[in-house]
Amino acid sequence: MATIQECRGALDRLSDNLAGADGGVRGAAALDRSLSCHITDLDQTFTGRLDGGRIRVESIAPGPPASKAEIRLAMSGDDLVALVAGDLKFAKAWASGRVRLEAGFRDLLRLKSLL
């Protein structure tokens, strides 16, 4: 089972990957939205913002998200680490229910190029 530090590191790597992306991926990541990522097996939630093509983690709190972010993710820590490492494909994980993504329709359309 991934630790909270490994999950934080994965989110930092994802942020670096988004910041270094180009073309359509960079455009999709340029949203300014509140973001939460609930790590279900650790029952911890990272909250922050997707801003300027980067993920800024502002807090980590126990339990599910206290408030409804504009973009909401939920998955196990192992799945987060595997997704960022490229060992797990988002579409397959989402289709099988291993990863949950909730966002407004327009945001989902823009985010699809990231996934």
Mean pLDDT: 88
Sketch the topology as an H/E string, one letter per element. HHEEEEHHEH
How much strand content do the residues show?
25-35%
Strand order of the largest sheet: 3-2-1-4-5
Q: Which of globular, elongated, flat, extended, rod-shaped describes the shape?
A: globular
Structural category: alpha+beta
Number of distinct helices: 5
For the largest beta-sheet, the strand count, sense and barrel status come to: 5 strands, mixed
Q: What Rg is obtained from the alpha carbons, in whole angstroms?
A: 13 Å
Low-confidence segments: none
Question: What helical percentage do the residues reach?
Answer: 40-55%
Instruction: State the separation between the terminal residues, measured CA to CA.
Output: 24 Å
DSSP strand count = 5
Structure description:
The chain is of the alpha+beta class and 115 residues long. The chain contains 5 helices and 5 strands, in the order ααββββααβα. The chain has helices spanning 4-20, 23-29, 77-85, 90-95, 105-111, and strands spanning 33-39, 44-51, 54-62, 71-75, 100-103. The protein has a 5-stranded mixed sheet with strand order 3-2-1-4-5. Helix 1 (4-20) packs parallel to helix 3 (77-85). The longest helix has 17 residues, at 4-20. The radius of gyration is 13 Å and the shape is globular. It starts with a helix and ends with a helix.
Output the keywords.
40% helix, five-stranded mixed beta sheet, single chain, 115 residues, alpha+beta, 5 helices, 29% strand
Give the topology.
Blueprint: H1 4-20, H2 23-29, E1 33-39, E2 44-51, E3 54-62, E4 71-75, H3 77-85, H4 90-95, E5 100-103, H5 105-111
Parallel strand pairs: 1-4
Antiparallel strand pairs: 1-2, 2-3, 4-5
